[in-house]
Amino acid sequence: MPEAATAGGGDAAPASLAVILLASVLVVATCGLIYELLAGTLASYLLGDSVTQFSTVIGTYLFAMGVGSWLSRHVRSGEMAVFVRVEILIAALGGWSAAGLFLLFPLVGDFRVVLYALVMAIGVLVGLEIPLLIRILRHRFAFRELVSNVLTYDYVGALIASLLFPLVLVPQLGMIRTGFVFGLANVGVAIALLVALRRQERIGRDMTAALIVTTSLLAGLFFADRLQRMSEVAFYNEPVVYARSTPYQRIVITRRDGDLRLYLNGNLQFSTRDEYRYHEALVWPVLGRVAQPRQVLILGGGDGLAAREVLRDARVGHVTLVDLDPEMARLFRDTPQLAQLNSQALASPRLTMVNADAFRWVRAEQRRFDAIIVDFPDPTEFSLGKLYTESFYREVARLLAPQGVMTVQSTSPLIAPRSYWTVASTLEAAGLTARGYHAYVPSFGEWGFTMAAHQPLGDVVRLPPHLRFLDAAAERAMFDFPPDMARRPTPVNRLDNQALVRSFAEEWGRYEG
User: Fold this and answer.
1) Domains and CATH numbers, the chain
2) Cα–Cα distance between 490 and 36 in angstroms, integer?
3) Nearest 5°: CA angle at 40, between 36 and 43?
4) Which of 206, 313, 375, 378 is catalytic?
5) Which range among 254-258, 303-307, 405-409 shows the weakest confidence by mean pLDDT?
6) What is the DSSP track for 139-168?
C-alpha cells in the first residue's frame, strides 16, 4: 500500500482522509449538476424557451468548468486548503443561487447578466474540484486506479442528480429549498475535511467561514417559504395565495380585490374578471355548429373552465378531458373556491379526467368525438410546440367525427399574427378546413382561436340564451379581421422545424420589449 498521502501543504494525511475525499467526489458531482439544473430550470421559468435557456446555461457552465480546470494548474501548494475553501464558496453561491435569482429577477434591468455571471462563478469553482482532488489523492492510489475511482464517483453523482432533480427535488422541495439542501452538502464536505485535518492544519478561519455559511443556509432553508413568497409577490406584483411546483410546471394563483389569476410557469392563464369571455369564445362557436355533440374531447384545460362551458350544454353526453398535470385536476376539483369557479365540472359524472401527455394519448386513442376543444398553453417552448404541429393535428383529425368541429386556442392575431396564422396553415396541412376568429379578453388583449373541421365551416350557429358575452351578433363579428390582423402567408409547423415556437418568441419578444 502506498504511504500516507500528502495533503497539499506537505503534511501527512490521516488514513481515513482518502475515504472522505473519495466520498466527497460523489457529493460534489451531485451538487455541481444540481446547481446546473437549477440555473437552467430557473432561466426557463423566468425567461421562457426552455431549449434556448438550457442550451446556453449548460454551455456556459461547461465552459466555466473548463476555465476552472485550467486555473487549477496555478495552485502550486496547499491543495487541500484551497479545495476546502472552494467547497465553502460553492456552498454559499450554489446554495443561495435559486433564492437569489428569484429575488433579483424583478429588481435588475438585465437579468441575463446576473444569471450568466452566477453560472460562470459556480462553474469555475466546480471546475477546480476534480483536478484538486486528483492531486490530493495522487500519492495514495496508482494513477490508473485513481482516475478510475474519481471518474466513477463523478459519473455516479451525475446520475443521482439527474434522477433526483425532476422526480423528487423539484416536486417535493421546490427549487429554493433544493439549492439550500445541496449547499449544505457542499459545506458538509468542507467541515468533514476540516475535522479530519484538525490535528495537522490550522483550520480556525476556514471552520469559522464554513460555520457562517452553514448558518446562512440553514436560515435560508427555514425561511424558504417566505423567500419564495417574497420573490413571487415581487414577480407578479400581486398577493400570492397558492404556489406549488409539480414535475411539469410551477402553479401560482394570485388574488387582488376579488380577482383570482392562474399562472403556469409565470404565464397568465386566466383572470376571474374576464375568463368567461375567453371560455365562451373557445367553446360555444364549436358546440353551436354541431347538431348532436354527444361525445366531447378537451385537450388541456385542466382548470375545468372549458369543461364548465361544455357541460352547460344538455346535449353533451360525456366529456373526456386530457391534461398532463394531476395536481391541476386535484387543485381545481378539491379546492372549494376553485371548484365553484368551474361549477364543480371536474367532479361531474359526465366527465372523465385523464392525466397523460396529449401527444401520446391521441396517437393511442381510437374513439371518435363530435367536438374537440384544444386549450393548451402558448407555444413558448418546443415541448409545447409539438402540440401545434401537423403530426399532432393529423392525429386529432383522426379522432374528429365526420360532421364534428374542433377549435384551437391560437395566441393573439394582433401581437403575433404570423404565429396565429401558422396554426391555420398547419391545420390545413393536416387535411382540415380551418377558419380563424378572435375575441377581446381584457387580461390578454385581442385573442385568437382557430376552428377546423372535415367539411366547410358554415355561419349557422345555435347559441344558448344564458351566455354573458356571446350572442349571435358578437359571434358573427369574431370572424371579421381588420388589415392588421388579416391572414398572411405562413409556414406549416412541423416537428422537424418548430417554426411556430420561433415566430412566437420573436413576435412576443418584440412586443414585450
Assistant:
1) 15-236 (1.20.1250), 274-509 (3.40.50.150)
2) 37
3) 140
4) 375
5) 254-258
6) TTS-HHHHHHHHHHHHHHHHHHHHHHIIII
Return the pLDDT at 10: 40
Annotated binding-site residue numbers: 249, 279, 303, 323, 357-358
Contact between residue 303 and residue 270 where contact means Cβ atoms under 8 Å apart = yes
**CA 37 to centroid of chain Cα atoms:** 11
Contact between residue 475 and residue 454 where contact means Cβ atoms under 8 Å apart: no
Q: Point out the annotated binding site for spermidine.
A: 279, 303
Q: Which amino acid is at 84?
A: V
Q: Supply φ then ψ for residue 416, to 5 degrees.
A: -130, 65
Q: Is 375 a known active-site residue?
A: yes
What pLDDT does 2 receive?
40
Annotated binding site for S-methyl-5'-thioadenosine: 249, 323, 357-358
Q: Annotate 472-503 with DSSP letters as a single string.
A: HHHHHHTT---GGG-----PPP-TTT-HHHHH
**How far is 84 from 104, CA to CA, in rounded Å?**
29
Name the strands in the sheet holding 250-256, side by side, starting at the edge strand that comes first in the sequence.
240-245, 250-256, 259-264, 267-271
The structure's pTM equals 0.75
The DSSP line for 184-218 is HHHHHHHHHHHHHTTTTS--HHHHHHHHHHHHHHH
